[in-house]
Amino acid sequence: MSLNTKEKQKLRKFISELESIRGRHTELVSVYVPADYDLNKIINHLQQEQGTASNIKDAKTRNNVIDSLEKTIRHLRLFKRTPTNGLAIFAGNVAAQEGKVDLKIWSIEPPEPLRMRLYRCDQTFILDYLKEMLEVKEIYGLIVIDRREAALGLLKGTSITVLDELTSAVPGKTRAGGQSSQRFERLREGAAKEFFKRIADYANKEFLDKPNLKGLIIGGPGPTKEEFVHYLNNELRKKIIAIQDITYTDAFGLHNLVDKSKEVLAKEIIIEEKELMNRFFELLAKTPEKVAYGKKEVEQALQLGAVEILLLSENLEANLIESYEEQAEKTNSITQIISIDTREGQQLRDLGGIAAILRFPINI
Predict the structure, then answer these.
(1) Residue-wise pLDDT tens digits, 13-55
(2) 139-260 CATH fold
(3) pTM of the predicted model, to two decimals?
(4) In angstroms, how far is CA 214 from the centroid of its own chain?
(5) CATH fold match for the domains 5-134 and 139-260
């Protein structure tokens, strides 16, 4: 499963803090405990590593590694059992000044289960396995088509990527005089079939071997889209999860297709974010007293306990997001981090990155 935006924000902040730390030698300790793994085995292993570390020649490095391992072992003893998704622990001397010692420890239960066990000492913390969790794994193929044009795209998380827009050589219904009706119609049908084959070949190339392709959504006006489906590779046809009636068959049509597929994509965060932002903009247009946006207005609404849902752009600084979340929690307000991959998310960013749907109107 893909992480929601709030989980991503929390993990990004954690990784960012640790990424900036550099050890003077290979003295920073990283420990990954897999889900369902016996903590006692990890503790025993780290105690053995303390013995091995006593052989390190440099006294400062030796002491820092042994002390970091001891701090990690003590931290592990605080847990009665391994957390559901496992545990990642990082410890080391973070003192900026040479010769000083400032041992710190961090730990996190990852948002996804850890499947591997690791102990390592290095000049940096080992964060690659956490970074992999930030990558969206599930993608959807998008195709919008009629006889005149088509567009293909990918939905990955909240981001819609346009792969290509293509036009056909199908003649319009208005024809030059002198041509027989039947001949002209044969030309149109032949050109349409060639266009469908071209789009199907493109789709096969783009989607067929994508291991994380969760589904394929097709849209367009009239019966053309159903006709086109028969040109797709059989394996791709099995991936079709929805065929939607939509008007546009260009890049805008891809966004329209995602909007139209709410039920199919109900579990995808993009829909939740779009619906929240659309609710905000509808209230802004019809009952503007029920919303607030901008730093000053929203902060005042938070102080008055008037915020029902706090909308924060992921573009804001992590510390600022955390501060607003803490304020929201005091009055049981819901906080939603909004990505900037959608049009609605970009609009929030342009409004200053902070907005709110209110419980009651306030005078500002």
Answers:
(1) 899 999 999 988 889 999 999 999 999 999 999 999 999 999 9
(2) Nucleotidyltransferase; domain 5 (3.30.420)
(3) 0.61
(4) 15
(5) no
